[in-house]
Design goal:
The protein is of the alpha+beta class. The strands form 10 sheets. The chain has a 7-stranded mixed beta sheet with strand order 26-29-30-34-33-32-31, sandwiched between helices. A 5-stranded antiparallel beta sheet has the order 5-4-3-6-9, with no helix packed on it. Strands 11-14-17-18-19 form a 5-stranded mixed beta sheet. The mean pLDDT is 92. Helix 3 runs antiparallel to helix 11 and helix 19 crosses helix 20. Helices cover 25% and strands 26% of the residues. The protein has 20 helices and 38 strands.
Length: 808
């Protein structure tokens, strides 16, 4: 939310600098996101001028040569293209050297041969409005040469706040002023609704009916006669512009101004265009169309609310008004509506229609019904001041809240509990001061305070802990660092947490960088990963209230977020990547309807892209990411966790055929590893991608949590190599497994590794030679050939059973 600092100071003006105010508000929970400079670059060079003459430019039909008194010894000659410039006007002038809102420094110029020493300014050239149809003519301005900053709000600081969803009261400038008052102790001015020029009672000119009272707690309206539509005064347009809104006309500007000031949206109807003079709030019909103020026709469903007159819907309740009854230049009678709506319904409507507005963004957070009448009273005062209107007797106030106002809760705030939760005592007087500043009412009790919650905090403060937060958040810098009391709780990680940390450390230790991707994704990711229709990873858990279409379902694999991160980095020149992520994945239940909770487990995935090492003068073309690079990274994880694992050839739709495998731990598959399929890599604008993903929960469950140690032996190992010729389709892992099984009983086989692969014409077509390095070792003696030979014979026989022939 953008808050012009001068507007904020109109309600609360602390005697501290802006930077200190930022810090205090942010520490108290009202986070200042940024401070923007709005308007001109500085006051120097901007003055009040008096047009002494305005003659036609000799060489340009649309320009006039003006002589302007700017308070100096000699008048300035300024060439102006505004159609309304004339002698005798008091105007805003920018002199050479003045810095305009876009940062341009004004210089003397020659326009069609005539010297121009400055500019006569329109509203938009000072960023205090959007009008560029002509120059501003100042009324009741001081003498020529006076600083323009004394006449117009030509520069200001705008504070941008990040308002949390539980504080819709801070979406109004007076709500922010209340926070400033509590944080600094500066005086708080009365609210803009302190004086109500209207009256209660029935209204003869209009009527309101609510057919959906469960979704509309309160609907208020007043009728204004004799309205004159015109531009708003400069101060109002300047504040709206600084707050990020475009001035339109005085009536519409009043509704926007009061919304920004009070936090509650309003809507103005042209009463003469409201058929029958009656409005009805009802649920829409399925497929019912409504033309909104933006000129678009929206198709509604039965869970949305409309406001209709005798001829049909005029607006979508709480979201946007309709085109048929909007205020125009011919409007003379206005029906001003300020209503309260149920937040979740407005949020659903806005999301389903893809239509967000300033109003819907406020209503969906749950505004209090009390705020509706406050906004109505503030707007009434401005309507009378700025439109020349008179307010008709009475106020329409209908709905369940109008019939029986909701109670405001009273909570006990105990001093002992405050100290226990915050770690330090907060004096009762300090608690009272802070709570009163925030709009709460208090009464003394034996052990603390009885606190009455104001209506605008009803949805946020409902228990004692919430009150403790309110009295503690303004002293966060003084609170001691303490740990809460937790009986029986151990301050260390569980076994599973330690093992997961060990796995992550293994990946980090090999140069990979961790990412944290969204747990949400889009259903279309299944097609980009080429998942089959029966693939369990297509069983997405749909979000009831998604943030966007790209985050509509929960992810079933980490691969999508890894590829998104790789594409983001590669597109910015960082193509050599080693990324990993650990996080939850979710697969929907097979139940129909799917009422059961989804299957959820923690997964660990990694991605390699591009080169696996930087180029050097010795290695100009390093190896690129491939199956074996990914398998090596996977081995680092699984070996660190001391699990017995293996890989078997397998086909995954998103992996390259023949360059992929499934990962086994024990007697079950826990994941996959391989190179990415070229079609999938192309969908993410990548190439040379190798990946793996494992079910980390299952791997951790099989891991050796307690390390066991084996005595080192001083007796040397014996290595013997076997060159075995087999067909190309025989997997090396099958030979290693057969050899290991054959030598297992002897207890002498220390290791078996494939150290070389050879193919050549002398072996024949479709044949390969694998060099196996066999390591034998005993803990109690030096082995002899007589010890090793029988074991070696059994291994050779086992290799022959797999189709292997000894070479040489």
């Amino acid at each position: 939310m953008r808050v012009p600092y001068a507007w904020l100071r109109a309600y609360c003006a602390p005697d501290i600098g802006l930077s200190e105010l930022e810090e205090r508000l942010t520490l108290s929970g009202t986070k200042v996101e940024a401070v923007h400079h709005h308007g001109v670059g500085g006051p120097d060079g901007f003055v009040v001028g008096k047009v002494l003459s305005a003659e036609q430019h000799p060489d340009a039909d649309r320009l006039k040569v003006c002589i302007v008194d700017v308070g100096e010894d000699e008048p300035a000659q300024i060439v102006c293209g505004a159609p309304n410039v004339a002698a005798g006007q008091t105007v805003a002038v920018a002199r050479p050297g003045a810095v305009m809102p876009d940062g341009t420094r004004l210089k003397k110029a020659r326009l069609r041969g005539q010297e121009s020493a400055g500019m006569i300014l329109a509203e938009d050239e000072l960023a205090i409005g959007g009008d560029h149809s002509g120059i501003m003519v100042l009324d009741d301005a001081p003498a020529a040469g006076a600083p323009l900053v004394d006449v117009l709000p030509i520069l200001d600081e705008v504070i941008e706040f990040e308002i949390t969803p539980n504080r819709p009261d801070c979406l109004g400038i007076y709500g922010i002023a209340r926070e400033v008052h509590a944080a600094t102790g500066a005086l708080l001015a009365p609210p803009p609704w302190a004086h109500d020029p209207g009256s209660t009672g029935p209204v003869d000119a209009a009527a309101i009916t609510i057919d959906a009272p469960d979704l509309c707690p309160r609907f208020t309206a007043r009728v204004f006669e004799g309205v004159t539509i015109g531009p708003s005064p400069g101060w109002l347009k300047a504040r709206l512009t600084a707050a990020g809104m475009r001035p339109i006309n005085n009536v519409v500007d009043i509704t926007n101004y009061v919304m920004l000031e009070t936090g509650h949206p309003l809507h103005a109807f042209d009463l003469d265009r409201v058929a029958g003079g009656t409005l009805t709030v009802r649920r829409a019909r399925d497929g019912e169309p409504v033309e909104t103020l933006d000129g678009q026709t929206r198709v509604l469903d039965a869970e949305m609310l409309v406001i209709e007159d005798a001829e049909g819907p005029t607006s979508i309740a709480g979201v946007m008004g309709g085109a048929r009854s909007e205020v125009s230049d011919t409007t003379t009678r206005v029906l001003l509506e300020v209503a309260s709506w149920v937040g979740p319904n407005i949020h659903r409507t806005s999301t389903r229609l893809g239509l967000r507005s300033e109003a819907s963004g406020r209503f969906e957070k749950g505004l209090a019904p009390e705020q509706a009448m406050e906004a109505q009273q503030a707007a009434t005062r401005l309507m009378l001041e700025l439109t020349g209107a008179t307010v008709a007797p009475g106020t329409i106030d209908v709905g369940p809240f109008a019939e029986e106002p909701w109670p405001t809760p009273t909570l006990r705030l105990r001093e002992q509990k405050v100290q226990a939760l915050l770690g330090m005592p907060i004096p009762r007087a300090r608690q009272t001061t802070l709570l009163h500043a925030l709009g709460f009412a208090t009464a003394d009790a034996d052990d603390g305070l009885d606190v009455t919650v104001p209506g605008f905090r009803r949805n946020d403060v409902s228990r004692e802990a919430d009150l403790i937060e309110e009295v503690g958040r303004f002293d966060l810098d003084r609170l001691p660092a303490t740990l809460p009391k937790r009986r029986g709780a151990a301050g260390r990680m569980s076994t599973a947490q330690r093992l997961r940390r060990r796995a992550v450390d293994a990946v980090v230790g090999r140069g990979a960088h961790e990412i944290v991707g969204w747990s949400f994704t889009e259903p279309a990711v299944a097609d980009r990963l080429r998942l089959g229709e029966d693939d369990p990873r297509r069983r997405f858990v749909a979000m009831t209230n998604p943030m966007s279409e790209d985050h509509a379902v929960l992810r079933t694999t980490l691969l999508g977020s890894l590829l998104d991160a790789a594409r983001h980095n590669a597109a910015r020149g960082a193509g050599d990547l080693a990324l990993f992520e650990q996080g939850a994945v979710y697969v929907a239940s097979r139940a129909h309807p799917p009422t059961a909770l989804p299957h959820e487990h923690r997964a660990l995935g990694a991605l390699l892209h591009g080169r696996t090492a930087p180029a050097t003068w010795r290695t100009r073309e390093p190896a690129r990411a491939d199956f074996f690079a990914a398998k090596g990274l996977l081995a680092a994880v699984l070996d660190t966790l001391r699990v017995a694992w293996s890989v078997e050839p397998a086909a995954e739709p998103f992996l390259h055929p023949g360059r992929s495998a499934e990962v086994w731990v024990g007697d079950g598959v826990v994941g996959w590893v391989g190179e990415l399929h070229p079609l999938v890599a192309r969908a993410w604008d990548l190439e040379d991608v190798a990946v793996f993903e494992i079910d980390l929960d299952r791997v951790v469950a099989a891991a050796d949590a307690v390390p066991t140690y084996r005595d080192l032996t001083s007796f040397p190992p014996v290595r013997q190599d076997l060159a075995v010729v087999v067909d190309d389709d025989v997997a090396a892992s099958d030979l290693v497994s057969a050899a290991r099984a054959a030598g297992l009983k002897s207890g002498l086989v220390h290791g078996i590794e494939v150290v070389d692969v050879y193919r050549g014409a002398q072996l024949g077509e479709g044949r390969k030679s694998l060099l196996l390095a066999l390591t034998f070792q005993a803990p109690d003696r030096t082995l002899t050939d007589e010890d090793v030979a029988p074991v070696r014979e059994r291994i050779v026989a086992a290799l022959a059973a797999e189709g292997g022939e000894l070479r040489g």
